[in-house]
Design a protein that fits this description.
CATH architecture: Sandwich
Number of domains: 1
Low-confidence stretches: 180-184
Strand order of the largest sheet: 3-4-5-11-6-9
Strand content: 35-45%
Shape: globular
Order of helices and strands: EEEEEHEEEEEE
CATH topology: Jelly Rolls
Number of helices: 1
Number of strands: 11
Helix content: under 10%
CATH superfamily: Jelly Rolls
CATH class: Mainly Beta
C-alpha cells in the first residue's frame, strides 16, 4: 500500500493537441531503509524554466533527495510510525539520500538539509518536524515552506503520514556559511 500513487501527466501529440501521456501508478518507488520511509518520485525538472518539449517520463531515473541544479522534484513520502523513536544511523541515512553531512552534530538520526526551498503538503496523518532546538507539529492539510534548514521528520503517531514534497533548487542560505560542510 505504501508508495502507491496514481500519476497523471499531460503533454501534446504531434499536432499540438493536449493529451494524457501517463496515467498509472508511479513506478519509481524507493524504500529508504536507513530512514524507514517509502519515497515515490513523480516528476523531475532539470532547469528553470522547465523544458516541456518532450513526453518522456522525467522521473524514470535514480536521483537523491535534492533536486538537480536549477531544477525541481515532486515526490510523495510515506512516514510510518516510529514507536520508541528512530534507531537508524544518520550517516547511513544521508548517504542513502544522496546528501552530504552538514558538519555539526545531528539532533535526531533523521536530521538533514538540502540546498532547496521545499514545499511540504501533509496529505494524511500527523508528523513532527524537528529543527535545531525547536519543533512543529503538522497534520493533514497543513503546509510547510522550508528554506534549507536542518530538520528531521518524526512520526510519533499511530498511522502512516503521507506528505507531498516539491523541492526547488536554491542558493545556499547565509546561515550555511556559519557551519562546516554546508550540505547536511
Amino acid at each position: 500500500m505504501y508508495g502507491k500513487v496514481r500519476r497523471v501527466v499531460t503533454g501534446h501529440d504531434e499536432s499540438g493537441k493536449a493529451i494524457v501521456v501517463i496515467d498509472d501508478i508511479a513506478p519509481n518507488i524507493k524504500e529508504r531503509k536507513a530512514a524507514n520511509v517509502i519515497s515515490t518520485l513523480l516528476w523531475v525538472t532539470d532547469g528553470t524554466p522547465a523544458d516541456m518539449s518532450s513526453n518522456a517520463d522525467t522521473a524514470n531515473r535514480d536521483i537523491g533527495v535534492a533536486p538537480p541544479a536549477n531544477g525541481s522534484v515532486l515526490r510523495i513520502v510515506d512516514f510510518p510510525p516510529t514507536p520508541g523513536g528512530a534507531t537508524h544511523d544518520n550517516a547511513a541515512m544521508l548517504k542513502e539520500m544522496g546528501i552530504a553531512d552538514g558538519g555539526k552534530p545531528a539532533r535526531h538520526p533523521s536530521t538533514h538539509r538540502t540546498k532547496s526551498i521545499d514545499y511540504a503538503i501533509v496529505l494524511s496523518g500527523e508528523i513532527d518536524m524537528l529543527m535545531d532546538d525547536s519543533e512543529v507539529h503538522l497534520k493533514a492539510g497543513d503546509i510547510m515552506v522550508q528554506q534549507g534548514t536542518n530538520h528531521a521528520w518524526v512520526n510519533n503517531g499511530n498511522e502512516v503520514c503521507r506528505i507531498a514534497f516539491v523541492l526547488i533548487d536554491a542558493h545556499e542560505p547565509p546561515a550555511w556559511k556559519l557551519t562546516e560542510g554546508g550540505g547536511h
